[in-house]
Amino acid sequence: MPGIVGIIRPEPYEGIQRDLGLMAETMRHETYYVGNQYVNRGMGLYMGWLSHPCSLGESMPLISADKQVILIMVGESYSDNGRPISPEATGVGRANAHRLLHLYEGSEDEFLASLNGWFCGVIINLGTRKITLFNDRYGMNRIYFYEGEDEFIFASEAKSLLRVRPTLRAIEPGALAEFLRFNCVMGNKSLFKGVSLLPPGSSWVFAENAVPEKKSYFDFTAWEEQPVLKPDEFYEKFDETVSRVFPRYLVGSSRVALSLTSGLDTRVILAAAGDEKRELPCYTFGGLWGDTFDIRRARELAAICSQPHEVIRISEQFLHEFSSYAEKSVYISDGTHDAFGAHDVFFNQIARKIAPIRLTGKFGSEVVRTRRMIPSGDFPRHLVQNWLVPFLDEAPLFDQISQKIHPLTRVVSEEIPWYEFGRVAVEQSQVVLRTPYMDNELVKLMYRAPHVLRSSRGLQVGYLKRKTPELANLPTNMGRMTNDGQLMGKVTYGLFWALFKAEYIYLFPTPHWLTRVDRKLEKLKLERIIVGRQKFEAYRIWIKTHLAESIRDTLLDPRAQCTDFFDKASVRGVVDRHTAGTHNYLNEINKMLTIELICSSLLRSPSTSPATLMAPCPAEVSDY
Fold it and tell me: Which residue, 255, 326, 453, 471, is most buried by CB atoms nearer than 10 A?
């Protein structure tokens, strides 16, 4: 996804600017990205950046009036006047950007603390000869780094480091074990040896050398220690904050569209946007088997608000080109999103044609109701090489790794950026992704919520009732309604829950015995009866139909590198039994395929990287 790259090194070497260009080039996943470079040989800084057109990064660098401060920042931030910083040459957006420069001149800590959004960047202070590398307080705009001998190399994507430092092209066994068991790598680690992550809310300062002073500009303790409000007072404050904050995310120099579902999170956005009286195109993702509940309900919700709505569906084209989409999912995300996240690339490529900015209700349940995300999973030991078994056995659980005590802090600064980053990275490669649920003002307020409100759906339902009652009267995908406490509401919920559970079990954790029953009844095409109400992902079924040949060619190829980690005979057995329809190895095949794509697209020689992902990066080199 768009971001920054850089080398901090007091003494340059021959080819350093070539390496800088390669690092930026490696992050160019689409030809329409815009980019630039800034080089200050006197301070030993060589950096570049890429961004979506008409986004903040396009206007970088920002230079103070006295030409002593240079700010380079990619991502989005929202100022206290409710406007996003934009790349417009004149007007409110540009004024906000220069206001931040003035704020920096008063206090660096105040400047960083004023930023509100997902971002990363560098501040160069020529007067003090200091370089400050920073990211957002949640760590959603990642910065990977490598501390070498007399050099510090950083990038928004790990592959940029691997491109210019071949010694980093190796998987860290402990990190791999976490990925296999928990679907993510936890802590400030990456999958690759020697490559780490900048912690959330960092402001690392470099002065005359490549060794940073590792500082933080934000501590969640200040939010955790706020007094809890009484329920009535909190309801009032919640309504005021949502009504004031959410419309910020409708503003942009490019078109904005809402990724709409049947859930409460996006309904609240619709309700809050109602006062703006502007068009907000809506779309919903779907599959091959008709309209899901999300599609039907989203269509009704959009109609209530007089907004246009359309459906983006998985198509036969996607299944035919699955291998390409799967490789992009793994490559773009540096292996943090899996092969069966391929549809996220497909969906968001189409979504960009509707609007370059995608507004979503992501993380509403986690922030408003503090829902846990990272599972306590495992991975079959007999499928891996013997040397990897101890790493799986010793992989610590999330509770053992977490540095946070407050449940909301754990969610916003650890679980979301560790567990959900890969999907966000893939989506951000195609669109500018926005969610108002991680706005600083809302997150800060949620620390003041009484426990009884955080453990229910009452906050969002109450807001809808007071703001746009029609949006509250339609059931969610689980059949929940505003009369949940009544008998009919409970019966409806029970029925929807049973149907949801049946579909989930049929599509994902299907027991082996049930898989064999399904095979014997395949002429009845049970998927057309059971599937399509809630879910559109049918990879368990697609593996043995549309994707069988592709998966066999990839995993059973004698040159496959995933057998460095998985037992070769077991790989063949898993693929053969699943494609035959006698067993369900959905998770295992997903992990094996993902690791194979990590090896083939991220660890191999860059000269063989996919040409479509490696378009040249036009850049301008400047000395100040």
Answer: 326
